Fold each of these.
Amino acid sequence: MAEGITMLLNSGTMDITADLVDDPSDSGDAVVAFVDSAEADTTAGGDCASGLTVSDYDSEGTHDTFLEVAGGQTVCFTVQPKTNDTVNASSETQIFKVTLNLYGDHVTLLSQEDLYFVVPAN
């Protein structure tokens, strides 16, 4: 079965979109507080595919989707943090988690990566 799935993925194309999700178990919305964007990166180099077409799927002003990615190609996204002007330091170090989800054709979850933001104690 795994071989069949691999053949299917290698034979077609799909759009790959990044979505950032806050972990509700911490004390704030880390996406709002710490992340500016997750952008489809066409210039990352290394194993990352170049020359792919990108799109702003959610119409928020950032290219968050690679279009028509062939099976076997590696795509890369750059998560742009923003300056923390929301979460104040406290007597204890605070850790916030955001999950970067990558979806194929806006439906199938392809990958998840946890990202952590730390606010040091004062």
Amino acid sequence: MQAYSDKTRQSDPYALPDVEVWHTDDYDDYDEYDALEEGWYYWPCFPGCLPDGDPVGPFASETEAKAMAESDALDYCEDEADGPAPEDIVISDIPRGGWSVDEVEGKHVGTYIELADVEVAIKAKMEADRFWPNVWIVSDHGNVSLYHMD
């Protein structure tokens, strides 16, 4: 079942449900999920797309799984505040391949083919500047989220 992690977006004609709530019986043909305990799970997932994370659960009911998805989304939004600050760094996908790295209100840091090279460049910039801003990534859906480097 597709659901909204933010109920207020349900009435927005341009918003898509962003969570899938499901029971382990729904995926009994997939070996990858055989190790899951029986119960209800959720994961971030737009309609027609692959899941954007690992299953979260199990929960005793569909209602409980959906409530936890809404709660987790609220916590995540509070952690991310209002998005990138002027001094933060943003990684964007280049349509024809590669990654662009820019300061929100500043200069272009560079263009890279591999995401691993992006991380190396960002870490080097942070060390050189002696400043460690938040790093954000823009998904192919246009969503901006915090990017966690190793």
